[in-house]
Amino acid sequence: MKKLIKGLREFKSSYFSANEELFEQLSHGQKPRVLFITCSDSRIDPNLITQAGLGELFVIRNAGNIIPPFGATNGGEGATIEYAIQALDIQQIIVCGHSHCGAMKGLMKLDSLRVEMPLVHDWLKYAEATRRLVKDNYSHYEGEELLEIIIAENVLTQIENLRTYPVIHSKLHQGQLSIYAWIYQIETGEILAYDPEKHAYVLPQNQLLPSEIDETLVSPPLTSNVEIHFTKTQQRAFQSSQELPISTHQWFPMTVLSPEQMERIYRGSTTK
After folding, report:
1. Per-residue 3-state assignment (H helix, E strand, C coil) for 221-259
2. Dist. CA 78–CA 67, nearest whole Å
3. The model's pTM
4. Contact (Cβ atoms closer than 8 angstroms) between residue 204 and residue 246
5. Which end of the chain has fewer CB within 10 Å, C or N?
6. Which helix (H) or strand (E) holds 215?
């Protein structure tokens, strides 16, 4: 607590004093551009990893970046989503999972949580579609590789849950909303974004239109002399995705996942 109180003093005397005009503007209202849904994990800071400014992100955080389907609960997630889209007119949503997710580790052994952490058990039931999909389709994987898969699949599952909200469904139908699936790698600081055309998670820079790419995006992250560390599963997906031509059309909003996408999200093609 002493450290936090010291931080409060430093914030007021340093950051706040240097940005008083910004805080004055923010005191009259907010206009965030992105709804960022991610895990409560203390190792993730949405503003830090995106370098977004104060007031630019509207954030929902909970264990496992879970979005209960519409009508399943009266919790804060649904109300926050509705407010973000309807009241704040946010037109971009990011659902961001992360490596080494404790909630997804719990999902892999859900029954063991029933007695020790019953509230966690009940919460993770909103990711039951993820657990069942992985159980039925990835039984030949185990350990860390299986965890990577369940983390990635869960992001897509939660986007499907997100699409059950009337306000989301309506905005998607009107073409007024884009939804992005991200995974943050704690150990490398990299973000991987799901590409529904390539059925794989790729670097988000690869999803930009040629007109949107500038020097800040290709140097240094995309130069050949920079080494990016991926796990074995991610390396296969990334390498496969690089073999496919990059189209110039808009990648998102996501459509309903095809059986092929459900079958193997890390594969760079639809073949098995």
Report:
1. CCCCCCCCCCCHHHHHHHHHHHCCCCCCCCCCCCCCCCH
2. 8
3. 0.77
4. no
5. N
6. helix 215-218
Q: Measured between alpha carbons, how far is residue 51 from residues 34, 40, 194 in Å?
A: 13, 18, 20
Sheet containing 57-62: order of strands: 57-62, 34-39, 92-98, 178-184, 191-195, 200-202
What does the DSSP assignment read for 110-169?
Answer: GGGHHHH-HHHHHHHGGGHHHHHHHHHH-TT--HHHHHHHHHHHHHHHHHHHHTTSHHHH
Closest CA to 194 of 160, 219, 166: 160
CA dihedral 104, 139, 270, 145 (to 10 degrees): 50
Distance (Å, whole) CA 142 – CA 144: 7
Instruction: Kindly list the averaged pLDDT for each block of 10 residues, start to end, along the chain of length 272.
Output: 93 92 93 96 95 94 95 86 96 95 94 93 94 89 90 94 95 93 92 84 74 52 33 44 33 37 39 36
Cα 99 off chain centre by: 11
ω into 220 cis (within 30 of 0) = yes
Asked if 210 contacts 248 with a C-beta cutoff of 8 angstroms, the reply is yes
Question: Cα separation of 101 and 186, whole Å?
Answer: 10
